[in-house]
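User: Could you write out the 3D structure of this protein bound to magnesium ion? I've included everything you need below.
Assistant: Certainly. Input first, then the structure.
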Amino acid sequence: MAGNMGMEQLIPIVNKLQDAFTQLGVSMTLDLPQIAVVGGQSAGKSSVLENFVGRDFLPRGSGIVTRRPLILQLINGNTAFIYIFPDLMFQNMQSFCTVKAKSLWTLKEVRREIEAETDRVTGSNKGISNIPINLRVYSPNVLNLTLIDLPGLTKVPIGDQPLDIEQQIRSMILQFIKRESCLILAVTPANTDLANSDALKLAKEVDPQGLRTIGVITKLDLMDDGTDARDILENKLLPLRRGYIGVVNRSQRDIEGRKDINAALAAEKKFFYSHQSYRHIADRLGTPYLQRTLNQQLTNHIRDTLPSLRDKLQKQLLTLEKDVEQFKHFRPDDPAIKTKAMLQMIQQLQTDFDRTIEGSGSAQINTMELSGGAKINRLFHERFPFEIVKMEFDEKNYEGKLPLPLEIFMASE
Ligand code: GDP
Ligand code: MG
């Protein structure tokens, strides 16, 4: 199966950075941006996302298939396994028990599980829900990255959908794409009018300057004979700062005929290179180009994040240098230093002692038995009264007998 080559090439870079930081004992905060798809129903959003990963696992099809947000977290790790679970933030602990964790899912099982999980919350009659499905994919072949598949914009409620479905889906989408760290793939099918594209309208609301919006035109193969999307793809019609990328995803028939991603990519390439309206820009069209563009965005992001990481390191270096400076003129037998060191040690001992009594001090907390202040507390409030009561008891056993006189030994002068 075709993976995402560009993404796989980025992995070693990120890993190298991570290694370097681990060696230095610095935690690396390299949050990669999220990528979300926006567009009308059946525009090809799930198909585009799936093509980005290069794996075949999202439910796709006609009608409203994606009915809950799907938050797909790709996590780079040595073991390959997948978790699907409803988000804890929205659900109580009880539903957390429905966690489904299983190793070695086949992609088909993943797809089926997503469908079942969608139906579990929304019912099977086209209802929607903004409770996300979380899908975590651990694999050595992915970058730490979050992709968000969203339900498509619709206008007319069907089945069990609420009357204000349009409003509900809009606010659901906005909730994700309003974040500054979210790249927006605004998906519009070529066989509809771009000027009416809900995807572009919505993207413009949260990203008016088009800094993080990429136009994606799908279904170029389904345009009426004699029409083409050349003006759009050349970024002349409704220019976007980052332009448009045209793709040809698998059709419903391809999906039913189980055309695999490799075959689909080859067909897409052939389509662009043999089409007279697209031939001249064919190297800037298609799924591999979309992948490359997104990978470029990720690379840029990493590059943009590096200066702040470097600043952090430099600050640490400075403090270390200051420490070293202190010790440069250090003469261990200088009485002034000795006194200072002793005072510091006494002070340290005092703080340690205080902390132990408070029970807030030591790095390791003994969970097997009480220690420090807690032990004193217990002795005083439990053990001591108990011993007192026991003494009273003992007294009763001495009925009639005089208590033994206390013997006091004093050191002779
Ligand atoms: P979503 O609702 O936006 O997530 O759309 P899907 O990815 O589920 O796709 C909806 C339907 O359109 C599916 O049957 C896909 O096979 C089909 N489809 C998506 N993109 C293309 C395309 O570029 N060409 C063709 N012929 N069909 C497509
Ligand atoms: Mg979908």
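The radius of gyration is 33 Å.
User: Perfect, thank you.
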